[in-house]
Amino acid sequence: MIGGGQLARMAHDAAIPLGVRFRLLADTPQDSASLVVNDVVLGDYRDLETLRRFAAGCDVITFDHEHVPTEHLRTLLAEGVNVRPGPDALVFAQDKGLMRAKLDSIGAPCPRHRLVADPADVTKFAQEGDGYPVVLKTTRGGYDGKGVWVVKDETEAAEPFRAGVAVLAEEKVDFVRELAADVVRSPHGQAVAYPVVESVQKDGICHEVVAPAPDLSPELAAEAQALALRIAGELDITGHLAVELFETRDGRVLVNELAMRPHNSGHWSIDGAVTSQFENHIRAVLDLPLGDPRPRQPWTVMVNVLGGDYPDMYSAYLHCMARDPGLRIHMYGKDVKPGRKVGHVTVFGDDLEDVRERARHAAAYLRGDITE
Amino acid sequence: MIGGGQLARMAHDAAIPLGVRFRLLADTPQDSASLVVNDVVLGDYRDLETLRRFAAGCDVITFDHEHVPTEHLRTLLAEGVNVRPGPDALVFAQDKGLMRAKLDSIGAPCPRHRLVADPADVTKFAQEGDGYPVVLKTTRGGYDGKGVWVVKDETEAAEPFRAGVAVLAEEKVDFVRELAADVVRSPHGQAVAYPVVESVQKDGICHEVVAPAPDLSPELAAEAQALALRIAGELDITGHLAVELFETRDGRVLVNELAMRPHNSGHWSIDGAVTSQFENHIRAVLDLPLGDPRPRQPWTVMVNVLGGDYPDMYSAYLHCMARDPGLRIHMYGKDVKPGRKVGHVTVFGDDLEDVRERARHAAAYLRGDITE
């Protein structure tokens, strides 16, 4: 796996019971995954020679993030490396402009959008619809709210163009809530769909996930799952695909973002599903039969633990374990910095209100927002 | 953790989400746990200097097996190392003679037993009860059926004395079945009890575990749990304690063996309980609050995968995943040798017959006993 973040850390954890040998390409020995994986190559994922050296001993390579240059992946593929997902699929997660064009071509519902040339063109885009505010995104390089702006006039619209990357404009969707439809697909075409979840964002970062999404109509849930499976098939994706969706006031879903790797919207599945997203991603990229994605209990709530003002979480960690023996704690081994994802907690059970309260309380306590 | 077997491998897997740094002392880089742990010290656990060097960077040391010399552990303890469980407790799992004497002293029910001096003394022991057959055990060094003999006369009784180790004689209990009561205890005295399980042995090796034990009277289950908790307290054990029990025809339980580490009877808990034995063992030795030991569904069945005649399990591995998407597979990364524990499978659900059939089928298929 290329990339040493928490996704690789959790993928390693899932690879162990499968008996799969897991090799990591990471930036530093202090990366979240470097701290626990035994076979680590240190190097720069933007360097082709490093990638070649890393891939040489691997049956297949896959990703913790979407930042490996597409052209390098095409070279590796041409040289016989199993790259999964392949560059022809991954590019739609790397480039939001290409992603929108592809989704349009297969008839997947999206917010109104187009590439824009400059601030004046943004104003033109706004006027083509309901006016400002408009959402602007750099087509490449963004994640966790970075590379996304909500601008309310042409002056603000100037900012995204400073990066020198193509800019995509999208209507600001007046959504009821955000959903995610996560699916996993293997090279020979087997696919599984996790239940559609509700995803609550804070400052552009996934904060809380409820599985399954409460009060979602069975029809819309089935539609979202079918849409995600169709995207996975049409884009020929191998591995985990997260389709982040807006649920609109008139009862439709629109595609917000795609992620072709394990995703924060699927962390609940480690404790909450028969087979986690990490295990199924590994199974998929190795073309092994996929595991049951169904939830193990009526409700699972996952809340991210963001770094807060207290760098030492130890006493909070003790408190949370003592308060709630059913709490599932996942720490990523990272130094605590304000706003950084340093872990997540999961609670499952029969009573949504109870489960949600416990998960929120633990995450808030670990962050230092409450001390009781 | 000292010892590089599958117990250490699974403990590492449980340590990752807790954010606990896990260091391993193993014999070789090919040990089951060495293959996945990133911080491995290679060395001989019988060598005091090696143990000192290993312990130097650890907050606490614990064990994958019970073979570290007691005197070395006493030295480390005297030098300020946190040894958990401590040598004064661990010695009762290392020496079956001391174990029986201690259990007698606290009134724990055991099979009739005493240390025997020679084959003639074994015959005397037999005549004190119902005669031969008699069970003989070397007091130190045995595991998985090694160091245990069932002898039917004085000639056969000669064999165990050849090792030059003290020999314990025990009545051959006419049991209904074997049970295990697994508990975890932390240094400050918190303890949790897993449901009592039924353990099916084959050739002295744990083969199948059903959690909870079917048709066990609630009174006897509670008695077995209370007994295990009492032993953990009286022996001042830190970490996981497996109390292997005989259920007698007259509805009592007798203590067969003690193991002070994660144990095969608790592997079901990885997929079947809210908190696994491995996680709770780690929490206990670090004196963290313990997690909920309760099962997540009515039935969980774990079956060991023993090496069979086919060294390459890959096609069977594919078959089992494809046949049963709910199957939980745990491979230990070991080379396949006939009779060697190379993995286990777990199935959980509402219907015991269905769950047991699926787990047994997968284990038999992986071993090569059936090919369908």
Automatic annotation (TrEMBL), chains A, B:
ATP binds at K96, K137, E170, E171, K172, V173, E178, N256, E257. Its EC number is 6.3.4.18. Signal peptide: none annotated. It comes from the Bacteria. GO terms for molecular function: 5-(carboxyamino)imidazole ribonucleotide synthase activity; ATP binding; metal ion binding; phosphoribosylaminoimidazole carboxylase activity. Residues 100-286 form the ATP-grasp domain. Pathway: Purine metabolism; IMP biosynthesis via de novo pathway; 5-amino-1-(5-phospho-D-ribosyl)imidazole-4-carboxylate from 5-amino-1-(5-phospho-D-ribosyl)imidazole (N5-CAIR route): step 1/2. It holds the Pfam family PurK_C. GO terms for biological process: 'de novo' IMP biosynthetic process. It catalyses: 5-amino-1-(5-phospho-beta-D-ribosyl)imidazole + hydrogencarbonate + ATP = 5-carboxyamino-1-(5-phospho-D-ribosyl)imidazole + ADP + phosphate + 2 H(+). PROSITE patterns: ATP_GRASP. GO terms for cellular component: cytosol. Homodimer. PANTHER family: PHOSPHORIBOSYLAMINOIMIDAZOLE CARBOXYLASE, PURINE BIOSYNTHESIS PROTEIN 6/7, PUR6/7. Belongs to the PurK/PurT family. Catalyzes the ATP-dependent conversion of 5-aminoimidazole ribonucleotide (AIR) and HCO(3)(-) to N5-carboxyaminoimidazole ribonucleotide (N5-CAIR). Catalyzes the ATP-dependent conversion of 5-aminoimidazole ribonucleotide (AIR) and HCO(3)- to N5-carboxyaminoimidazole ribonucleotide (N5-CAIR). NCBIfam families: PRK06019.1-5 (NF004679), PRK06019.1-6 (NF004680), purK (TIGR01161). This is N5-carboxyaminoimidazole ribonucleotide synthase. It comes from Streptacidiphilus jiangxiensis.
